[in-house]
UniProtKB/TrEMBL annotation:
Protein name stated in the entry: tRNA N6-adenosine threonylcarbamoyltransferase
UniProt organism field: Alteribacter keqinensis
EC number: 2.3.1.234
Ranges where the Gcp-like domain occurs: 26-309
Gene Ontology CC annotations of this record: cytoplasm
Location (main, coarse): cytoplasm
Keywords for this protein: Acyltransferase, Cytoplasm, Iron, Metal-binding, Transferase, tRNA processing
Amino acid sequence: SEELIILGIETSCDETSASVVRGGREILSNVVSSQIESHKRFGGVVPEIASRHHVEQVTYIIEEALREAEVTMDDVDAVAVTEGPGLVGALLVGVNAAKALAFAKSKPLIGVHHIAGHIYANHLVEELTFPLLSLVVSGGHTELVYMDEHGKYEILGETRDDAVGEAYDKVARTVGLPYPGGPHIDRLAHEGEATIDLPRAWLEADSFDFSFSGLKSAVINTLHNAKQRGEDVPVKTIAASFQASVIDVLVTKTMRAVEKRGVDRLVLAGGVAANKGLRARITEVCEERGITLTIPPLSLCTDNAAMIAAAGAVMYEKGQFADDRLNGQPGLEL
Ligand code: KG4
Ligand code: ZN
């Protein structure tokens, strides 16, 4: 159905977003209102502030998405909304807005998993082919997901503690960089040399799980010990060494999974997919091995509703609809 029109809504964290996607892959609009400025002075996302922003913004953002796409609710075939995981108060704003619209206009309602959305950001760029592997790296998630058809997800590995973006943000905070720290560490990493030998958490030999809290602690200890000795470690050296460890583990484990599952298609997803070092390294390795790689543009890597509409379109085709019991689920499983 080329002409399927989905309205997507995303409010799981600190971006209020609405989007209209046609035929599952064509973005007619993708309006994103970021709250980063409001959270910056607290050094992270404050759930209460996030919810309040979503409440203030959501109606306007939806109206703007429809206006930009030059459609009305009459043209919309279904409303897809992030059901979870995320901040419960934030999720509820999107879910309730979607429910209100869907029932007022007698449209089907679809509850989308946020990670499915991140993966489907790639479908907006390059049609997904199966089987594939997806590395999802964001502020809240670090997951290796295997797919052999649309809408079916198998988690091969995930973080046992901090998400990779969270580790970036914590290390950034330790060295006095503003929130969100990921982009700052990335920039500084390219100016410095990875001369500090930081740990790599390989875990069990056959594990595709990740762990980043030990790495974060190692950075803190390194800084502490240097200070006691009266030495000064340049931030760019810390950034480069930290980033080298993260990329080494992410890329090595991803390639092991690619080999084990025998896939030749890899997609990257989530805010940390914006990382220049990660993009460069994974592109290089995929070229060496003849693996087709898709990385969404920055605007589709970070939270947005187009990816939710794209994942929702697949659920529409499968007849996976929600009813009026749809609720925000902070710990929803993929
Ligand atoms: O996907 P996203 O926008 O929100 C979540 O669903 O979490 O990801 C945000 C995360 C933040 O932790 C941010 O520091 C990180 O992505 N990030 C980066 C870069 N750009 C954003 N981390 C490393 N390098 C970057 N260039
Ligand atoms: Zn996200």
